[in-house]
């Protein structure tokens, strides 16, 4: 299937990222199959005859792949609907519970899924480098801190991207992030624990997204930084993932696969 015949659906088509996805799907030369919205009749600015539904099943039935940046609460029903219709899924939702993650992995037995906390190619490479550094720099000597800043409306902290970067470091070190994560320090916390991966979250203004991961020893500091200037980078990356995932055998993939990065 070529880009010109690929039917792309957009979950949450009326949102800020959804509107950017509408533009990027058309720039890529794919077919905008339709979308979902809480109030389907209130969506404006779409090309003529593009349908908007209140449910994922209707969108899945007319799409080859659906791009989904909605909410964790929708993940289970979306997974079921997409698997039932055999529709590939590009999922950008983070903060999933164990039950929601299980639903995604179950669907991946039936459909191809690209799931990422951040669809920016730059962030994907930062995660890869963070994993390599976590493997190469001993936890006994190098303290790791992940710093992120976002717009004042963001409701979750640390960000999904910050957690994904921390997870990459933990994978490089061969540990579970849940066992070494330190977040929201306040008051008399005592000395820093050896091997901890710390997180700090800042909020203000309309910052799209800033992430830094610092490896600091007694003798040196190495910093990986990423700055997103426009939300469009997330939409562009998600459409790139949609073009890549359609036609793949069922499975669970990440942006590393989309970019063709070799496994570590």
Task: Give an overview of the whole structure.
The chain has 9 helices and 12 strands. Helix 1 packs across helix 8, helix 3 runs parallel beside helix 4 and helix 5 runs parallel beside helix 6. The longest helix is centred in the middle third of the chain and has 16 residues. The chain is elongated, with a radius of gyration of 19 Å. The model has no long low-confidence stretch (mean pLDDT 95).
- End-to-end Cα distance, whole Å, is 31 Å
Hey, roughly how much beta strand do the residues contain? 15-25%
- Give the CA-based shape: elongated
Largest sheet: 7 strands, parallel
Query: What is the β-strand count?
Result: 12
Uncertain runs = none
Tally of individual helices? 9
**Class by helix and strand content?**
alpha/beta
SSE order in H/E notation? EHEEHEHEHEHEHHEEEEHEH
Helix share bin: 25-40%
Radius of gyration: 19 Å
Q: Let me know the average pLDDT.
A: 95
Strand order of the largest sheet: 3-2-1-4-5-6-12
